[in-house]
Amino acid sequence: MQRLLKLGKWADLPMRPGFGSFMHPTEEKLTLIKQLGVDEIILNMYRNNLIDTNFDSLPLPGDHQWEYKDLLMLRNTVENAGIRLLALENMPFSFYDKIMMGQAGREEQLKHVQETISNMGRAGIPVLGYGWTPTGVWRSSTTYRIRGGAQAMSVDLDDFKTAPLSHGRIYSEEEMWDYYQYFLEGVLPVAEEAGVTLALHPNDPPVPSLAGVPQLFRSFEAYKKAMEMVKSENHGLQYCLGNFSEMGADIDEVTEYFGKQDKLVYVHFQTVSNSLSNGSSRFNEVFVDMPGYYDPVKVLRKLKEVGYKGMIMPGHVPKVIGDGSWEERGRAFTIGYIKGIMATLGQED
C-alpha cells in the first residue's frame, strides 16, 4: 500500500502552516484555526503539563489501543470544520511503556500498537508521531520571564542532577537501542501495509541520560542511525527545530540531509536561546522574532530549497498576557510570522 500522506487530499500540497499541541478538537479551537487561515492540524494525545491537554478525558478512549470507529469519528469531527487531520502525535505511554523498557508484557503491547496503526490507516489518518522518551519531557520552569514579562519554558540541567532513578536502575545505551530495534521491526511492516507514516520526535531535552535512562535521540547522528536501523519509506522525523537547536546541530545540514531523503514528515517551529552543546547547562524558549539559535527566514528558505512540502506548526510558544491554556495569542503571533515569511518566499519564485 502507498503512503496515505502522498494520496488523495494530501497529494500535491505545498509547504503550509498548521497547528498542533492540543488534544481536544473543540468547536472553539477549530473555529479559531480556520479564522487564522490554517487548514491542517495535529492532535497531541500525550498527557503532560506542558501543552493544552485535559487530564479528565481523552478524545480517543482506550487503555491499550485506539479503535477504528473512534479514530474515524475523530477525523470526521475535524474534517466537518473544513480542516485536515494530518497526524496523531504521541500515543499514551500505557500503550508502549513496556516496549520502551524491554519489560515483560511487551509482546502484548506490540500487538496493540500494531492494531492501532492498522486502525489509523483504515480511518484515513496518515501519520503517527511518536516519542521514545520513557522518562517523559522535562522542564525546569514554564514561567521563565522573557520580553515584556511573557512566560516561556526553560531548562537548567543542574536541576536534574539529583533526580531519582525513574525505572529502578541505570540502563545502558546498548539495551535501549535493542528495545528500539524490537519496536521498529514490529511496527514498520504494519505501517507500510496500512499506509501510515511514523514520525520520531527528539528527546526533550536532548541530553545523554535522565533519571538513569539514556536519551537515545539527542543528536543528528542518532537520527541517522534510527532511520537506517530498519529502512522504510514510512519512517521519518518530527522535525522539532527547538530540540535540534538544543543539540547544537547545523540546521541547514540536517534539513539538507533528511529533506532530500523525504524524511521530514512535519516541522515543529520553535526557537530557543542557545545550544546545550557549547557547555551551557541552560536554555529557554523565545518568541519567533527574537534572537535565538537560528534565523527563521533562512530555515524556511532552506526547507523550500530541499523541496519540503509538509506542514509547519508552532511548537512551544511563550505565553502572553490574556492567553488561555493553549497560548492562543502566542500561537496566533507565531503562525502569522510563519505565514508572512512563507508568503515572501513565494514571491521569490
TrEMBL record:
Keywords: Iron, Lyase, Manganese. GO terms for molecular function: ferrous iron binding; manganese ion binding; mannonate dehydratase activity. One of its GO terms (biological process) is D-glucuronate catabolic process. InterPro entries: Man_deHydtase, Xyl_isomerase-like_sf. Its EC number is 4.2.1.8. Transmembrane segments: none annotated. Pathway: Carbohydrate metabolism; pentose and glucuronate interconversion. SUPFAM superfamilies: Xylose isomerase-like. Gene3D superfamilies: Divalent-metal-dependent TIM barrel enzymes. Its cofactor is Fe(2+); Mn(2+). Pfam families: UxuA. It catalyses: D-mannonate = 2-dehydro-3-deoxy-D-gluconate + H2O. Catalyzes the dehydration of D-mannonate. Belongs to the mannonate dehydratase family. PANTHER family: MANNONATE DEHYDRATASE. This is mannonate dehydratase. It comes from Pseudozobellia thermophila. The lineage of its organism: Bacteria, Pseudomonadati, Bacteroidota, Flavobacteriia, Flavobacteriales.
